[in-house]
Design goal:
The structure holds two protein chains of two kinds. Chain A is an all-alpha fold. The radius of gyration of chain A is 25 Å and the shape is flat. By secondary structure, chain B is of the alpha+beta class. In chain B, 24% of the residues lie in helices and 34% in strands. In chain B, the strands form five sheets. A six-stranded mixed β-sheet of chain B has the order 6-7-8-3-9-10, with helices on both faces. A five-stranded antiparallel β-sheet of chain B has the order 13-12-11-14-20. Chain B has a four-stranded antiparallel β-sheet with strand order 2-1-4-5, covered by helices on one side. The longest helix of chain B is centred in the middle third of the chain and has 18 residues. In chain B, 39% of the residues are buried. Classes of the chains: A mainly alpha, B alpha+beta. Magnesium ion (MG) binds next to helix 1 of chain B.
Chain lengths: 308, 358
């Protein structure tokens, strides 16, 4: 008799042979199911007139009503615009910062000095956002803050930075760089460490100086890493780190500071409009998904580098 | 005059000295091969010539100019690395052009040079490819091309063929030799493969443990090795070395006294190592040969030749003989005949070659 279901039997054989590997995979799968896929069930309230008393399943469907509400809401549009604005600034200044930092670290020849400098720059990453916000608020305070003190020496009157909408974005983006650039440079330092040293030796014999080696060898060699990080970054473009926004903004600066996530937070948790908040969150996720797919396929087409 | 001269060159890494005062003069257009076992300091020596390692002591001159403190780029040398060191993000043409672009050679000129060099190396059809899309041999050629386009005074090679398979290595070896004939540039070539050394070199430098054992043409080293190390290093299979004693009439090994064609006057009674090249014995007695009884272990046919693995006392010996297409008659061999003129004697204690009368 010919073997039936060969594909199935082969899969079983494979599982029998490699079961240890699948066992190791299991916790990750469980994590995904519990924390990412199960909550997706609740996403349906974006299309329902949700009330906590009726529950998710028993609330009546309302179709796209919440999305119509969203797209006719000026505050929501302002939040989308602010999110994109802040993310664009982050991409423009925050993305290159760790790369530049890594390249600079790479040029430090003195080992102890290099290690010390790196440790100092990594530190802010390990401080909680609450404390970071506290430091920023203190530093920019109009009375005792160091920034206004310095401005005072130059004869400039104190500025109430954190109440001025035009100052929110620079301060927010700058804080993000201060907090994460150092830690983010680790990935690029690792990539630099992976460059074959004989490329540099060959370039030295050919007459290249350090500057030329950086531009012609280091940067091209870590470009795949840069592109991968960029894809991830673009995928997160709708995800402005909203704890820090909540800690730093105030009603006076909503016009530039309120992002989708903070708006969702206020609508959902503070005003109890869970269904509307879910719709906004879903919108956010769909945009992010489209962006990351697009970035990945562009990168694959133009540089043969892609996440998947 | 683009000779390279090393005088009492020393290299220390921290407190450890790895090159112990090397003297070497490489003449213009000469092809010198540094050969020796792994870790003996070949690469370090080459890298000091390139300027990639600082010279701890001694003097290096290229073309008569004192070079110790000169930056690599100003030494006018080009180096080919073992792993090729090709830039993965550049295509073949740009890889070869790298050094020229750094030196701001005009574009039109670069184009011409690349085209000519690609022609010489047979890379014309691959100029647009990235290194990742080339075979090992092609990558090796690109690495050579990158050195050639600069027209340096001196070429330095650090085991350029060791990543290639045996067949390709033979082919590239011939190509390097042809290139050297054509370009006539002074070359220093590092390898641990003695066949490469023998075939490529004008002169071979045998290194061991940070020092030079002997310098000479391949045949000089083959015929007159100064010690057991050189004798054992060059030739394949290596020279057989049997411990023995000098007597009034020859060299005694086991119960056999091998007749020698030289006057051993002052040496009688001396402990020696008797060196016999595998290919120097014959299976038939001839004039001035001594029969050496052996017990045959194994016959390895190589085609036109065969290797005879045999035991003599406690020593394992290897002999090489022509087969004329047959090996059946070899299995019964129990004696080889050693010609008096082709036996080398080494002092048992120092390993140095004993010359007649000395
Ligand atoms: N940067 C270094 N620091 C300390 N010791 C080193 C360094 N580079 C080389 N050495 C030592 O110097 C000695 C010579 O090394 P070298 O690389 O010149 O050997 P080699 O003859 O080229 O060997 P191989 O055939 O394996 O390439 C070795 O013992 C090695 O351990
Ligand atoms: Mg080496």
């Amino acid at each position: 008799m010919a073997p039936r279901n060969t594909r199935w039997t082969r899969a079983v054989d494979h599982l029998k042979r490699e079961w240890q590997i699948y066992l190791m995979l299991l916790p990750t799968i469980v994590w995904f199911i519990v924390f990412l896929y199960k909550p997706m069930y609740g996403l349906q309230i974006a299309f329902k007139d949700y009330s906590i008393f009726r529950g998710v399943a028993n609330s009546p469907w309302v179709g796209l009503e919440h999305f119509e509400t969203l797209f006719s809401n000026d505050q929501f549009f302002r939040a989308v615009y602010n999110t994109i604005q802040i993310s664009a600034l982050n991409l423009l200044f925050g993305f290159p910062a760790p790369i530049i930092l890594a390249l600079m670290f790479n040029e430090i020849l003195h080992a102890t000095y290099k290690k010390t400098a790196q440790t100092i720059v990594y530190l802010p990453h390990f401080i909680s956002s609450v404390i970071i916000a506290g430091i920023v608020i203190t530093a920019f305070s109009p009375t005792a803050g160091i920034v206004n003190t310095l401005l005072g020496w130059l004869g400039i009157d104190p500025i109430y930075f954190l109440t001025k909408p035009e100052w929110f974005r620079p301060i927010f983006v700058g804080t993000g760089i201060w907090q994460e650039a150092g830690f983010g440079s680790i990935v690029f330092l690792a990539a630099i460490a992976g460059v074959n040293p004989s490329l540099y030796e060959s370039a030295v014999v050919d007459g290249a100086n350090r500057w030329q080696m950086m531009w012609r060898i280091t940067i091209p060699c870590i470009l795949p890493t840069i592109l991968i990080m960029l894809i991830i970054r673009i995928g997160n473009i709708m995800e402005v780190s909203f704890e820090l926004v909540i800690l730093l903004y105030q009603p006076a600066t909503y016009s530039t500071a309120d992002v989708v996530n903070t708006w969702v937070y206020r609508q959902g948790l503070q005003s109890g409009q869970y269904d509307l908040a879910a719709a906004a969150g879903l919108f956010n996720a769909v945009v992010a998904f489209v962006l990351v797919m697009a970035a990945n396929s562009l990168s694959r087409r133009f540089s043969r580098t892609s996440l998947w | 005059m683009a000779g390279v001269s090393l005088s009492k060159i020393v290299k220390r890494f921290g407190a450890i000295e790895v090159v112990h005062g090397i003297d070497l003069d490489v003449a213009e257009q000469e092809f010198v091969v540094l050969v020796g076992p792994s870790g003996c300091g070949k690469s370090t020596t080459l890298r000091m010539v390139a300027g990639l390692e600082e010279i701890s002591d001694g003097e290096l001159t290229i073309d008569g100019r004192y070079m110790n403190r000169v930056a690599p780029k100003d030494r006018d040398v080009a180096m080919v690395f073992q792993n090729y060191a090709l830039y993965p993000h550049l295509n073949v043409a740009e890889n070869m052009a790298f050094g020229l672009r750094i030196r701001r050679v005009p574009n039109a000129e670069i184009k011409q040079i690349i085209a000519d060099t690609a022609e010489i190396l047979g890379l014309t059809n691959y100029l647009d490819r990235r290194p990742a899309d080339l075979s090992g041999g092609q990558r090796q050629r690109v690495a050579m091309g990158r050195a050639i386009v600069r027209h340096p005074k001196v070429f330095l090679f650090d085991e350029p063929l060791s990543n290639l398979d045996a067949k390709l290595r033979t082919q590239m070896r011939a190509e390097i030799k042809r290139l050297h004939k054509r370009l006539g540039a002074t070359s220093i070539y590092v390898t641990h493969d003695q066949v490469e050394a023998m075939t490529l070199a004008d002169r071979i430098v045998v290194m061991n443990d940070g020092s030079i054992e002997q310098i000479g043409t391949p045949m000089e080293l083959f015929n007159n090795p100064v010690n057991t190390f050189v004798a054992g290093f060059l030739g394949s299979p290596p020279m057989n070395q049997i411990t023995g004693k000098v007597t009034e009439t020859g060299a005694q090994v086991g119960d056999t006294v091998i007749q020698l064609d030289r006057d051993l006057g002052g040496l009688a009674g001396r402990d020696v190592v008797v060196g016999i090249r595998p290919e120097h014995v014959s299976l038939q007695p001839g004039e001035g040969t001594t029969p050496l009884p052996i017990s045959l272990d194994l016959v390895e046919p190589l085609g036109s030749e065969a290797l005879l693995h045999a035991r003599f006392g406690d020593d394992n010996l290897v002999f090489k003989t022509d087969t004329n297409g047959q090996i059946e008659h070899l299995s019964g061999i129990d004696t080889v005949h050693v010609p008096a003129s082709l036996v080398t004697l080494f002092d048992a204690e120092s390993g140095r070659t004993l010359r007649a009368g000395g």
